[in-house]
Write a structure and sequence with these properties.
The protein has about 325 residues and is α/β, with parallel strands linked by helices. It contains 11 helices and 12 strands.
Length: about 325
């Protein structure tokens, strides 16, 4: 009996030893970072730059793999079902983690329960822009005009359920105004109509609007960031305009499948933090006016849950139908 007992002890010791070695070796092979959008866009380009620095910090290759479809939700669903071993992570965003639960009838993942938050990436604020000859130059003047002409001011939507669409809904709700919505299939056709004066206002990202503002085709009324943007130093924030509830931005970060070992999450957190603070990434973020967000783990999970509740309320108030 003693011999049998000792065999069990020895076997147990081998298992513990193997487990410890397995954990200590992480990562011992390339990590796959799923980006749920098409190649070539700003999201893909930014991810590949960060992945390079992330891999350097980990001492292992980080491979970016595109899995687009259904507004990014297909890629997120794929990762929710991946092995929780730390070798598959997802690019998550406001759209797929906070808005999607209220925009899709059949969403096969829970953005809070099915994922382990790793690290936030950045927040891209919106600019509130208008056709150059419209009789308002600040958010307050737009609100006053919209209240005098309810439902007459046209606002462009660069796709239903997009971050810029949600920013316009948030602004209208916070300011207590009603706009006439004009949907488009993307930012480019929307901006073309705004430049031509066929549209009154729109919300879009700073990097998309900068050239048009510089040429004088459109004007910036305000920004949705907490502080003024270097690119548009004269444009008021929503806080300065007296509409603090309209402060927002499209945020992004990385997550792993729920159940990923905490010690591996910690390794990923530390390496990603190093990547985000590297010179190439800091410079790239500044160029597109994206603001770094230093948040990880549990704090990030709390933030995502609160964002999901916030946008659920806005989407319900706006009466946006589920797809």
């Amino acid at each position: 009996m003693l011999k049998s007992f000792l065999k069990h002890i020895a076997a147990g010791a081998l298992v513990l030893s193997a487990t410890a070695t397995y954990a200590d070796d992480f990562p011992s092979k390339p990590i796959t970072w799923i980006v749920p959008y098409t190649p070539g866009g700003i999201t893909d380009t930014r991810s590949r730059l960060i992945a390079d620095e992330f891999g350097k910090a980990l001492g292992e290759t980080v491979i970016v793999e595109n899995k687009p479809g259904a507004g990014g939700t297909l890629g997120v669903e794929y990762v929710s079902r991946a092995d929780p071993d730390g070798y598959t992570i997802i690019y998550g965003s406001l759209g797929t983690f906070a808005a999607a639960p209220s925009l899709y009838k059949t969403l096969r993942y829970d953005s809070v329960k099915d994922f382990a938050p790793i690290h936030m990436m950045a927040l891209s604020p919106n600019t509130l822009i208008a056709y150059k000859d419209r009789p308002y130059n600040t958010p307050e003047e737009l609100v006053a005009y919209a209240k005098e002409h309810p439902g007459e001011v046209t606002v462009g939507l660069a796709g239903i359920g997009t971050g810029t669409h949600l920013a316009s809904e948030l602004f209208a709700n916070a300011a207590g105004v009603e706009f006439l919505q004009v949907p488009y299939k993307g930012s480019a056709p929307m901006l073309n109509d705004l430049i031509a004066g066929r549209l009154d206002i729109a919300f879009d990202y700073a990097v998309s609007t900068a050239g048009h503002v510089e040429s004088g085709s459109v004007k910036v009324l305000g920004v949705t960031s907490e502080q003024r943007l270097d690119l548009f130093p004269d444009a008021k924030t929503m806080i300065e305009a007296g509409i603090p509830e309209a402060t927002t931005g499209s945020w992004s970060g990385i997550m792993a499948p729920a159940g990923t070992p905490p010690e591996r999450i910690k390794i990923l957190i530390d390496a990603f933090d190093t990547a985000m603070k590297s010179a190439p990434v800091v410079e790239a973020m500044a160029r597109v006016q994206s603001q770094m967000v230093d948040m990880d783990g549990e704090e990030m999970g709390t933030f995502i849950a609160a964002e999901r509740d916030r946008w659920s309320m806005i989407i319900e108030k706006a009466g946006i139908e589920k797809r």
